[in-house]
Backbone:
């Protein structure tokens, strides 16, 4: 169903060619490579080539004007002592580790409420889905900047109850929270995946559980959660990978600075400032590879942990 | 978790499993209408109340932005409601001409990039998908695995060398860096989406065409492409929305105001204006969201299907 489950089946079935594959072996090579040509060129020229190049650059000092100068591990040792980079890691981890579970929890909750044969499902689904299409835009980031500003919508509403709200975005202690909230606001896409998953759970399981006197809560923990766990898992993997790369919202809300006092300085924003603000391309490349390793480690942890909580029906 | 499930009477998997989704959906619906007791009705009402409240909260900021874009500037900072006393269209006329070029200029730029990207994705991704879904060739599994991995690859590990490459060819401040990668099927998500779709098309159709003497180009163009229109529609819509919203790419490659797409133009607007012109800023934000909203309105069937079958936003 998903890219992730495809990947895991590929690795599980490694080396076992199906009868059909053996029969047709080699027959379509020429046609296949012609059809694949644009993709192959893209893979080499746009993806793998630049990846290797950026790996090389991460060991150099390069500012676009002079040719790259080999500096060995300098960029990486610099990263060890770069306090702003450490801070940006903290900001990004907070965003990912708070934002992703929160967003998925809301998505699951709303999907559960929507699931059971409720009237008006298409309407509600659209309403909840719309923000996830708009959430990545500059326009919504602008809106967020106003809403959580000192005289923004949130504080106007609070004022009606006699509460004087802080300047959410100008206060370092709340700025990140308002961006996390923007992430949670876009829960519509995972919600739709959850809805599709809930549809796949045979209703007989619930009926049998009811006959046995299981409460709604028991049904949720013993039927819904195990049956839905593969879908929760790949939502988790994809959202974590995506959230580590978030950029636009923090950039617009902070005016590109990552402020106030670096409280919204996402790792990607710092990378952008280093690479395209100061043209410190070597350091930016090293940071990009560091990000790739972090994402890889998180994904690996996810896959390892999944053995203990993800339930496969097959 | 398996052991816990076993305490329940095991249903016959073949008749109740995922193979027959229509069947239990029907069951579920009948359960909803036949057994219609008062408590169930109250429960449904409660759910509607929760959903309306939650949905209202979700949409409120957007509605408020729309209403505020039609208000006098000073009201934006003290009117949290949605009530409009008069229509202030000046925000739109002011915003439209606030930057170097009229806002329509940036929308045309965005439209060019979007059209190029849609064309690129449709052609290159459908070709790759046909090969992966229908043809047998050496290295297929390896390539397919790589293709799936590139879906998850962070953009940042390639952006610096890509920028160097494109700037050396002299492509900075042209639309090529934003369009050419799409012509080369680098948005692997769509390749995967189309592979999934083609796998669902009966192979008998290919076989019949093959017996009639059709080669792969013909089978692809005459049999597969016409049948995969829904997948092409999903690709078109997602490409439209993602490309229209794309900020990072445009920020890096388009620095000349002549070439700005809508997101970078809006960003320039935020930077250039003091806090007093939120009205026109909101107005142009609404203008920039309008195409996405329209595409959502008319294409949501394909969007929802696309997410549900591939599991990616």
Residues:
């Amino acid at each position: 169903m998903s890219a992730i489950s495809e990947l895991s089946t590929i690795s599980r079935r490694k080396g076992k060619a199906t009868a059909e594959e053996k029969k047709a072996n080699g027959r379509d090579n020429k046609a296949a490579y012609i059809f694949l040509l644009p993709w192959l060129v893209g893979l080499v020229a746009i993806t793998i080539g630049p990846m290797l190049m950026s790996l090389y650059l991460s060991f150099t000092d390069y500012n676009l004007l002079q040719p790259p100068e080999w500096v060995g591990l300098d960029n990486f040792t610099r990263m060890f002592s770069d306090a702003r980079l450490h801070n940006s890691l903290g900001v990004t981890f907070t965003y990912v580790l708070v934002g992703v579970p929160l967003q998925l929890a809301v998505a699951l909750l709303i999907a559960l409420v929507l699931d059971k044969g409720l009237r008006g499902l298409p309407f509600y689904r659209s309403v909840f889905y719309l923000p996830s299409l708009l959430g990545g835009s500059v326009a919504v980031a602008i809106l967020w900047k106003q809403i959580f500003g000192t005289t923004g919508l949130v504080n106007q509403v609070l004022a009606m109850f006699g509460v004087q709200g802080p300047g959410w975005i100008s206060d370092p202690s709340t700025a990140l929270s308002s961006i996390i909230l923007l992430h949670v606001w876009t829960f519509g896409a995972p919600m739709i995946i959850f809805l599709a998953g809930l549809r796949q759970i045979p209703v007989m399981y619930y009926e049998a559980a009811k006959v046995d006197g299981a409460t709604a809560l028991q049904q949720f923990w013993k039927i819904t959660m195990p049956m839905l766990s593969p879908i929760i898992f790949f939502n988790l993997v994809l959202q974590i990978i995506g959230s580590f790369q978030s950029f636009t919202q923090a950039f617009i809300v902070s005016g590109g600075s990552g402020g106030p006092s670096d409280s919204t300085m996402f790792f990607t924003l710092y990378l952008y400032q280093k690479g395209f603000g100061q043209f410190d391309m070597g350091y930016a490349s090293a940071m990009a590879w560091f990000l790739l390793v972090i994402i890889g480690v998180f994904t690996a942890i996810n896959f390892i942990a999944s053995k203990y909580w993800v339930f496969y029906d097959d | 978790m398996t052991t816990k499930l076993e305490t329940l009477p095991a249903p016959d998997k073949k008749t109740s499993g995922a193979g027959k989704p229509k069947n239990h959906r029907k069951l579920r619906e009948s359960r909803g209408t036949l057994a219609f007791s008062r408590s169930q009705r109250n429960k449904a009402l409660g759910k509607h109340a929760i959903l309306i409240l939650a949905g209202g909260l979700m949409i409120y900021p957007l509605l408020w932005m729309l209403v505020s874009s039609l208000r006098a500037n000073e009201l934006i900072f003290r009117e949290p409601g949605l009530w409009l006393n008069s229509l202030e269209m000046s925000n739109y006329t002011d915003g439209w001409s606030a930057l170097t070029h009229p806002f329509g200029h940036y929308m045309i730029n965005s439209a060019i990039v979007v059209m190029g990207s849609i064309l690129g994705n449709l052609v290159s991704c459908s070709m790759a998908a046909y090969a992966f879904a229908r043809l047998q060739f050496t290295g297929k599994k390896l390539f397919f695995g790589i293709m799936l991995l590139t879906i998850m690859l962070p953009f940042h590990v390639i952006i610096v060398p890509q920028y160097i490459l494109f700037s050396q060819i002299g492509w900075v401040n042209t639309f090529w860096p934003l369009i050419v990668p799409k012509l080369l099927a680098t948005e692997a998500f769509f390749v995967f989406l189309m592979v999934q779709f083609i796998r669902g098309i009966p192979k008998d159709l290919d076989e019949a065409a093959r017996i009639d003497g059709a080669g792969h180009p013909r089978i692809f163009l005459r049999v597969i492409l016409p049948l995969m229109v829904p997948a092409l529609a999903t690709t078109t819509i997602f490409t439209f929305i993602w490309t229209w919203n794309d900020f990072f790419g445009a920020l890096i490659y388009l620095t000349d105001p002549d070439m700005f797409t809508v997101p970078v133009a809006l960003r320039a607007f935020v930077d250039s204006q003091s806090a007093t012109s939120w009205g026109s800023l909101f107005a142009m934000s609404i203008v920039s969201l309008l195409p996405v909203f329209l595409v959502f309105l008319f294409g949501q069937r394909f969007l929802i299907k696309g997410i549900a079958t591939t599991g990616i936003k």
